[in-house]
Design a protein that fits this description.
Layout: E1 2-6, H1 20-25, E2 29-32, H2 50-68, E3 72-77, H3 80-90, E4 95-101, E5 122-123, H4 141-150, E6 154-155, H5 156-160, E7 175-179, H6 184-192, H7 199-202, E8 207-211, H8 218-221, H9 223-235
Parallel strand pairs: 1-2, 1-3, 3-4, 4-7, 7-8
Antiparallel strand pairs: 5-6
Helix pairs in contact: 2-3
Protein name: Alpha/beta hydrolase
Pfam family, one: Abhydrolase_6
GO molecular function: hydrolase activity
Length: about 240
C-alpha cells in the first residue's frame, strides 16, 4: 500500500527517515512529505495557509491512487493530523485509513495552534521551556540539538487558519490514534464525557487506539517502534 507520511510543525520529509524501514520491509511504498513552506529555512512562507498543506496531500493522493488503482493510507504527526483530516474530507473514497500520531482530526473552524509566537510569516521553533514536560519525555539533549538544527519555521497561517470541511463521508474512513504523551484510555474517557477537544474524533465510526508511551516526537524517540505500530495499522487494510 502507498503510505503518505505528513510531519508536524518545523519538520520536513527527512524527519521520518528512521520510521520508514519497518514499512518498506513489509512491502509498503512510503511517501514522506515536505509541506509547502518547509523546504528550507529560507523558503518563502508568505501566503501559505492550512489549505495549501491539505492540497499538497490531496495532490499526492490523487496521483498515487490513479497510478495504482488502490486506496492510500495517511499518517499525520502533531499538526499533520489536521492536514491529513482535511485530505480525508477532500478524498474520503481514496483513503483506506488515517493514522494520527500523537494528534487527532481537527474539526470545522478549528485551528492547529494560534498561540505559538510568530515572526511575520514564520512560526519559529520555540525554546524548550515553552513545552510541557510530557512533550519532552525521552527527548535527550542530543535529540533536542538534532531537532533544533534541522527545524524550519512553520508558515504562520498554517498554524492559525481555520479548518474547512465539507464531506461527512470522512467519518466513514477508519482511523488509528497512536497515543504517546498520555494513554489512549484518557482519550476515550474524554470522548465518553463529551469533551470538545475530541468532538471530531468522536464522530469517526471506526477508531482503534495504540499506545506508544513517549514524548511528542516518537519519530525521534522511538522510531522503530512507531514504524511497527504504523505497519500493524496499515496491514489491517491490506
Amino acid at each position: 500500500m502507498d503510505i503518505i507520511l505528513v510531519p508536524g510543525f518545523w519538520l520536513d520529509a527527512s524527519s521520518w527517515e528512521d520510521v520508514t524501514p519497518a514499512l518498506e520491509a513489509a512491502g509498503h511504498r512510503v511517501h514522506p512529505l515536505t509541506l509547502p513552506g518547509l523546504e528550507s529555512v529560507d523558503a518563502d512562507r508568505g501566503g501559505i495557509g492550512l489549505r495549501d498543506h491539505v492540497e499538497a496531500v490531496v495532490t499526492l493522493v490523487d496521483r498515487l491512487t490513479e497510478e495504482s488503482g488502490e486506496k492510500v493510507a495517511l499518517v499525520g504527526h502533531s499538526g499533520g493530523g489536521a492536514v491529513i483530516h482535511g485530505a480525508v474530507d477532500a478524498r474520503p473514497d481514496r483513503v483506506a485509513r488515517a493514522i494520527y500520531v500523537d494528534s487527532g482530526p481537527l474539526g470545522e473552524d478549528g485551528v492547529v495552534n494560534d498561540e505559538l509566537p510568530s515572526e511575520g510569516d514564520d512560526v519559529p521553533l520555540p525554546p524548550w521551556e515553552m513545552f510541557e514536560n510530557a512533550d519532552l519525555t525521552d527527548f535527550t539533549d542530543e535529540l533536542r540539538a538534532r531537532f533544533r538544527a534541522r527545524a524550519v519555521p512553520h508558515p504562520a497561517r498554517a498554524a492559525s487558519d481555520p479548518q474547512r470541511l465539507s464531506d461527512e463521508r470522512r467519518y466513514d474512513v477508519p482511523a488509528t490514534v497512536i497515543a504517546c504523551e498520555f494513554p489512549s484510555a484518557m482519550l476515550q474517557e474524554w470522548i465518553a464525557g463529551g469533551h470538545p477537544f475530541v468532538a471530531e474524533l468522536a464522530r469517526i465510526r471506526d477508531v482503534e487506539y495504540a499506545d506508544l508511551p513517549t514524548g511528542h516526537w516518537p519519530q525521534f524517540t522511538k522510531p522503530a517502534e512507531l514504524g511497527e505500530v504504523i505497519r500493524a495499522a496499515v496491514d489491517r487494510d491490506r
